[in-house]
Write a structure and sequence with these properties.
229 residues; alpha+beta; seven-stranded antiparallel β-sheet; 4 helices; 7 strands; globular
Length: 229
């Protein structure tokens, strides 16, 4: 007879907020339910993407020669984005006091894309003091985790909330969130930044996984040993 204690508990996906200097986690956000689907997009950063291949339209192929020389070169890591839908549902948890419904859970996620009141007050104070240049407000380092093989620094690019049920005080008790994220690479972060180290570890994990795949044979493609024109 199978015992429930023998069934492993599923790993949850989530977001960890780190202090960028010390690397200490300041908040761990565990998603209530793992998303059913993930939408991922990778855009290669080709070296010739920004070249003006149409400049002049002639001239002996100066611009065209440059493009051909850059065809197989990369400027840096691919730009990777993730998108998924997360669900928050408190309708089956009424035995636990929740005077604010799921307002707190929503607020935690919303604060990932908002500066704090203290940061805004400080910016206002510097403005009134006559500071010529005020640096943009720096947010904590945000790390998305999807199991041990996917741990990456990210910046939230989209947070769309659809609240679909409320209690008698009009507190939301069920919501669906569309979350979009951009994976931060070494091209986005300064050298030595903790997030850059996390990205390098994320990329190294991809390399290890790719190396575990058995290579195919040219014969399976209907080709001989050599590729000839």
């Amino acid at each position: 007879m199978t015992r429930y204690a023998d069934i492993p508990r599923p790993i949850r996906s989530g977001i960890v907020v780190l202090d960028p200097d010390s690397g200490t986690p300041t908040r761990v956000i565990v998603l209530q339910f793992n998303p059913d689907t993930l939408e991922r997009s990778l855009s290669p950063q080709s070296a010739g993407d920004s070249a003006d291949s149409g400049a002049g339209g002639g001239g002996g192929g100066g611009a065209g020669s440059g493009d051909r020389n850059e065809a197989l070169r990369l400027k840096g890591p691919a730009q990777e984005s993730w998108k998924f839908t997360a669900e928050i549902d408190a309708t089956d948890q009424f035995e636990v006091p929740a005077p604010d419904g799921i307002h707190p859970q929503l607020a935690v996620l919303e604060m990932l894309v908002q500066p704090t009141t203290a940061q805004l007050r400080e910016a206002t104070r510097l403005t009134k003091k006559g500071s010529i240049e005020i640096s943009p407000i720096e947010m904590p380092l945000t790390v998305f985790t999807w199991g041990s093989k996917r741990v990456m620094p990210v910046r939230l690019t989209e947070l769309s909330i659809n609240e679909s049920a409320f209690d008698i005080q009009l507190n939301p008790i069920r919501a669906s969130l569309s979350i979009g994220m951009k994976v931060l690479t070494v091209s986005d972060l300064p050298a030595g930044h903790r997030g850059a180290d996390l990205y390098m570890a994320h990329l190294a994990q991809k390399e290890r996984l790719a190396a575990a795949v058995r290579g195919g044979r040219l014969a399976e493609l209907g080709l001989g040993r050599g590729l000839r024109a």
